[in-house]
Each structure stands twice: as C-alpha cells, then as structure tokens.
Design goal:
The protein is an all-alpha fold. It has one domain (3-71). The chain has 4 helices and no strands. It has helices at residues 3-9, 25-30, 46-56, 61-71. Helix 3 runs antiparallel to helix 4. The chain is globular, with a radius of gyration of 13 Å. The two termini are 18 Å apart. 3% of the residues are buried.
C-alpha cells in the first residue's frame, strides 16, 4: 500500500486529516522504517499497519485476539 492510496482512503475522515501533511506525527510514524514493506520499498506493510491498529483500537480482548491471530 502506498501513502497516496492510504491518503485517498481516508481523505474524508476528519480523524485522519494529519495524514495529508508530510510534517505531521501520524505521517512520520506511518512512513517510518517499521511500517515499510521489505519486498516493496516505498510501500507500507499492510500486516504491520493492521497490527498497529489492533494495539490502538478500542475493541474487546476477544475481537482483538481474533484479529491478531488472523494477521499472524
């Protein structure tokens, strides 16, 4: 997934407005080496983004566990 694809997907979501700025903390985190796809340089690793989402979401433990398992 590229940054342009992610920006397009969240273009109308006010909570993700920081994604549009290259100087924002959100942009800098998502474009860090941790999220870079090793096989496709310049793109983000979707599994890493999903795992990060699981850590940050408000879901219950059962749902988070299931999603974590599915990703692995």
């Amino acid at each position: 997934m590229t940054m342009n694809q992610l920006r397009y997907a969240f273009k109308d979501d006010a909570k993700w407005v920081d994604l549009q700025s290259n100087d924002s903390l959100l942009y800098n985190i998502i474009t860090s080496d941790f999220f870079e796809d090793e096989k496709n340089k310049g793109e983000m690793n979707i599994q890493a983004l999903l795992l990060w989402g699981v850590l940050l979401c408000n879901g219950d433990d059962k749902t988070k566990s299931r999603v974590f398992y599915d990703i692995l």
